[in-house]
Amino acid sequence: MSGMVDAFVRHGLETEFADLSTDAVTAIKTYMLDTLGVGIAGAAIPLTDTVRKAARGWAADGVAHVWGGGGFTTTPANAAFINGFQIHGQEYDCVHEPAVVHPLATILAALMAEADAQGNVTGQEFAVALAVAVDLAAGIGVSVSSPIKFFRPANAGIFGATLGISRLRKLSAEQTKDALGYALAFNSGTMQAHVEGKPALPIQIGNAARGAVMACDLAAQGMPGPHDSLEGPFGYFSLFEDEADPADVMSSLGKIWRIAEVSHKPFPTGRAAQGGIVLMQKLKAAGVEPDNVEQITLTAPPLIYRLVGRPIQHDMAVNYARLCFQYSGAVVLKTGTVGLEDFSNSALADPETLALGGRIQVMDDGAKNPAAFTPQIAVATLKDGREVRTEINALYGSPSDPMTRDAHLAKFRSCVTFGFGSQRPQIEHKLIELTDQLEEVQDVSVLSRLAAGLEA
After folding, report:
1. 72-75-76 Cα angle (round to 5)
2. Average pLDDT over the chain, rounded to whole?
3. Do the Cβ atoms of 103 and 27 come closer than 8 Å?
4. Beta pairing class for 360-364 and 293-300
5. How many CB atoms are located within 10 Å of the residue 59 CB?
6. Measured between alpha carbons, how far is 3 from 388 in angstroms, rounded to an integer?
């Protein structure tokens, strides 16, 4: 038996609210609100109707809430699946950059469904469950030194979500190990959907959130599961990663709270595109306009080229476009930013945007760190022969260059409006108030009800 599972089970079951750092508590509140907003916005994705129709066929009745316009109640596993899809469906959810993991997409979807089912989870207990869950999901990613092979946001996220639910259910250490064993059994998620630009990526997030609920259901009923689920000969690291060493992560438990290392996504695109978006804004501020551009080159670490260096295409699917820097970069150079409305069918077909995107090139700088997002350099060559150069060394929204509270709240409010199709100021106000005062909340399921549009 290896040590990582035992270490995280102790951490997950024994941590108390008083153990959390002030920065961790602040980050928990911030990213809970951000993720609720993004999940609400996901209700307005056309494909969400398809996912909801399919999920209704699996189970119709239950007590857990589906968020956003047209929300309804269903089983916890179903709600976790749908809300997980909605959270990640627009690539707008927060990310732990060094881990290459979107931790709250899986974790908050699963834990909030569990809180709905229990109906008496306090804010303090929920905060602890979320913190230890993020520690595991991000800790798995931070342990890895080789390039991402499988879809780590789902593959690591299911372990974190399972640990968090185990904490909320007060499972024993043996039961928690059983549950983590079933998280391994349910683990799936590849990068093929990324290559093809298909919506299976957020489906894999939803599946991980649902799998975490189901894994804990099995463990709670006494179903024994594999206990060496992470470091065993056929555990997670052997099957899903090439090079990993969790020793530093294990020694940091209770000292480093990974939730405090999470980054906002200021724009609804893949995180790998967001440094370039800021650079396009800087170029525009320096006088670069679409009609005077000969070519723009974005030079960045290999992960950027791999994830968003794909060529712009006519008839792009939305999921393809969100991970295409040529598209998002062109939109920013035209309008100054990129938002949820820029991924409509009409926007994706705009001939001026497509032509401009074809003059943008993403280059691999050859860096050795497979998880690096920076530095990034953008050089615009203008039609008169001049060059304009700009660069960044930290991504906007990261702990090194954080969003202001006003910007964070503006993003949240825009997500709520988008997801419900109109402004819902009472819901916005209550969600902001309750997350700000999370440690005083006696039943966090009220957050889920509000996210589903129930104002009472």
Report:
1. 105
2. 96
3. no
4. parallel
5. 14
6. 52
Please tell me the distance from the alpha carbon of residue 104 to that of residue 209, in angstroms, as a whole number.
10
pLDDT digits (tens, 9 = 90+) for 272-312: 999 999 999 999 999 999 999 999 999 999 999 999 999 99
pLDDT band per the 50, 70, 90 thresholds, residue 1? very low
Does the pLDDT value for residue 456 go beyond 80? Answer: no
pTM of the model: 0.95
Give me the mean pLDDT over the 403-430 stretch.
97
Residue 449: count of CB within 10 angstroms of its CB? 19
Is the distance from CB of 318 to CB of 44 less than 8 angstroms? no
Tokens of 130: 């979320």
Distance CA 173, CA 171 (A): 7
pLDDT in the model for residue 2: 62
| pLDDT tens sequence across 146-181 | 999 999 999 999 999 999 999 999 999 999 999 999
pLDDT of residue 61: 87
341 three-state secondary structure: helix
Rounded-to-integer distance, Cα 327 and Cα 308, Å: 10
Structure-block tokens of residue 412: 């949240």
Mind listing the pLDDT tens digit for each residue in 392-412?
A: 999 999 999 999 999 999 999
Only one residue has tokens 């992470």, namely 230
Residue 455 pLDDT > 90:
no
C-alpha 112 chain-centroid distance = 15
